[in-house]
Every structure is written in structure tokens, then in C-alpha cells.
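Chapter review: from sequence to fold.
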Amino acid sequence: MPKEAKSAKFDPSPYRSITSPIPLLALFGGITELIIGSLVFKTAQQYQPYLIAGAVFLPLAWLAVIFVLIAKYHQNLYAPRDFPQGEHFLATLSAQTRAMLERGTLGPGFSPFIPSEGTTAEDFSNIQRDISKTPWPWLLREMNATEFLTLHTLYNEGQNHSLALLTMNIAISKGLTASKNYGFASASLRKLGRLREAKAFAQIALQIDSVNVDARYNLALICKEMGDADSATELARQVLAQGTEYHKRRIVEEFSSLQVGSIGVPPNP
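The C-alpha cell string follows.
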């Protein structure tokens, strides 16, 4: 069966950070019982029956809750890594979710101009109405690309890297496809921790202009954060050979293995 063969190749390792809430539920229940037990002998005698009743009936209620969760919501209680094989995890998912995983999140025929199959005509009409009430259509139509570059600078200086990335991407989509702009977008992605995308944008910047020192410097930092020490060091050496004094000092700060004296950069006064 072709579909089963695809499911068997599912690798749960990218989802290893997802954990099951069951151990947390058990820990909460255990701590609650310990608290109740410790209070029994410290509480006035007339209130002790209530605590004893709570200690008896609380585990039963807790067991009933867990039973309902496992019976009806088991797909939300177990993480991919809890299953010995990937296809066992896929078996708990809906057919639509399994199909999405097999063909990719968006699917081969995805287009941003086509609503999903589950979108009704009323949904689409509501989306259009809501969009028309926002300032975005006017901003996207009336603002020129250089104004979005200005906004990128403003947001970047204010450490708002999500909006800095957004405005730079709009500037690029409006035709400002210079190497430096892809480099700036790469820097915003790096500051957001989106290293794979940041690396791709930096590589595009260098394909457009191989002497873009900013992009090469940023790529060195990206490789360093990704754990690729060899590539990071090689890129750092290239920046030292091509860059300005500013770039050289920043590289020396980031890469302590590169000695100041050996590269001709005078030490800080």
C-alpha cells in the first residue's frame, strides 16, 4: 500500500521538543495528595473528616478525568516521541492531517490566491470585508518601496525585528532586490532565531553580490549559531580580508580564536 509506505517513513525526531502532559498530570495529582495528607494531622479534629474524604474521593475523580481524556482526547495526550514507531503516531491522526504530512504543509498545488477547500463563500466574504476595513490595502498600494526601507530601519533600531523583517520583505516584493536588502532581511531573521531562513537569505544576497561584506559577516554569525564552526571561521576570515575596520572588530569580538595581531587589526586602546 503506497500510503502505508509513506507513513512508515515518518520521522518524529523534528518534534522531539513536544512532550506529553500525562507526567505533569500525575505529578499534580501526587503533590495534591501529599498536601492533603500533611494537613490531616495539623487541622482541627472537626475538619479532619473533610480532608480524609477529599484524600479518598479526589484520586477517584482524578482517575475519572484521566479516563475521559484518554478515551476521547488521546490524540492530544501523546507526543510523537512516545510511540515506538512513526506510523503508530500517524494512526492516531485524522486522515486529513496524515495527508497534509505526506504531501507537505501547503500541498503541491497551493496558491495564496485560492482559499482552502474548507472555506465557504460566506467565510471568504467575511475575510474580504475584514481586510477592507484595515489600512493594509491602502498602505501596500500607496507606499513606495523606499518608505518601507525607512520603516525597516526604524523597526530594526527599535529592536522590533518581526516588523523589520515584514517591511523589508515588502520592499523586496516591490522591486528593491539589491543584495544588501536580502542581507538586511537575513539579519532580521537571525535576530528572530530563524536560522535556516536567515542562512538562505544571506546566500541569496551573496549570489547577487559576492562582495557584500555585511551579508558574509551575517552568514558567519548564522553558521556559528547553527554549530557549523568550520564554515563560520572560514567566513569570518573572508570578512577580515574584505571588511572595514568595523567588520574586523566585530569579527574579533565574535571569534576569539582569531587573534588580533595575526590579522593586522590594532587592539582597542
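Two observations follow directly from the output. Residues 136-263 form a domain with the Serine Threonine Protein Phosphatase 5, Tetratricopeptide repeat fold (CATH 1.25.40.10). The two ends are 71 Å apart (CA to CA).
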